[in-house]
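User: Predict the full complex structure for these chains.
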Amino acid sequence: MEAKGSSSYDYKLILATTAVLGIISVICVAAMFYFKAAAIHELPAAAQWAYMNTMNGIMAPFIIALILLLGICVPKRLLPERWLNRFTVALLAAALVTFLAVGGHPALLLILFASLALQLVVLGMALAGSASLNFESKNYWVRLGSSLVHLGLILFVLDLYFHNYHTLHLVLFWVTTGAVVLGMLFCFYAEQVAGLVRRYWPARG
Amino acid sequence: MENLISAVETYSQGGALLMPLLLLCALLLTVTGLGNLLAPRPFMPRWSGRLLQLTAVLMLLGFLGMIWFHWQIAQHAVLELPEQLAAMLNQQLEAMNRGATYGIPLYDPQSPPRYLIPPWIEYQRYYFWFFCFALMALLVHRRLDNQRFRGSLYLLLAAQLVVLYVWADPFREPLPRFFAEITPWFTAPSAWEQLGMFMQLYPRLEFYYTASYMWFHPPLLFISYACITIFFAVSLLMLIRRELEVERVGYDYAKFGYFLLTLGMLLGYPWALKAWGPNWWWDPKVSSSIMLWAIFSTYLHTRIYANKKGMWYFSAALGLLCFVAMIFTFVASYIFPGEHSL
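Assistant: Here is the predicted structure of the two-chain assembly.
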């Protein structure tokens, strides 16, 4: 547990993330009751797809917000704070222009690919043990785990776009699962992982 | 069928002995739980610990009984057809598999399909979930000597045992849905009748009862539910007093529960694609699972700042909300329609 000033940028990010996750929860509950009231399960396949697309449309802005907030955590580790805000605004502006020009899906894809590219850079740096990343924790495994979890979340949302490409969809899904599972293990059990690595691979530990 | 009936009778008789004992444990746990919550000093600490151990041992015996029962089912519930029907059956299966993303294995007369089912279906899922909680309560009991926390764990376990006894006894009428499905197979007057039934039973056997995901998706979620229940007890205590040791135990279980919940949910995804096809996204169960995961995520985020003014209580409130969301998610299968409804 940390004790920080309320003006802390990270603290505000946490509160914003909490708010977005809260809104996502409320939308999910509303969707459940709507599903039951409208008896979606009894409708023909086309109507079910329409419902799913509507739900995706309602959820998309909040997924974008969540990805952006996580995305802020990504460049936060690469850039100083003054550049961070500029980067976020630039990414949001680019997404907005894309949305107005060609629609919501490409805008979300732009954000996802930008976040994915950044996250891969961060993951590479975390893997290399770079000291220039601004992580909360100095622990190598926590840094690596955090990078993997964020990468997994971005990949999962990206993977939903490829549900029509059966093989790619499943391959990407298992990559996502691997990243999230490993990331959580590294994050939550960093000391135990470090102990295991020290035991079997002393040079790395 | 005779062997199956005999196994059901033995299993039910064992349960008829076990369940009243567990109810008695629940009553005693209630007494000791209230005692520890209300008394100024630890209430019969050694005796309470022994009672918790006894409850866990009894539940373990019940679970071993379930494993034995499922082994009997695997031995005797076999979809066996005369060899001369195999070729015709396989033609039908090949026709079914044509164009399907996920095909069903062809019928092999040398190794006919059998019901090797994990011990967490129907009412057994409650038993498994509560058994996991009993084991965790025992671990926490040994790890932390905290009177109020122990008391709350006793009460939660007692409540779960009462739920088992009154509403979800897995021994009283074992696997009613499963037996309702397969009994006609054994009472069918001819092999031709069985052939028709086979085409109904076999896909469900492959995609549900003996699906490989059945061994991972449900148990991971039930273990995570047990973790959330521990963490619920911690959250209640956090609202009453600031005890860092208790909070740390709660956080450890929250981390473990979150990891299992995430993994369990993810492993449900390819299973859903296989069993239901692509039209299930935003199904009520999926929505409720995302809701639970999102609330759990908020707890883990806010917990980082639990030392800040007000955040301790906000974090605790999220812990309680997480428990409510878990119950809601579990119950959603019963009250909301959709692919996952029971």
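Chain B touches chain A through 40 residues (CB under 8 Å).
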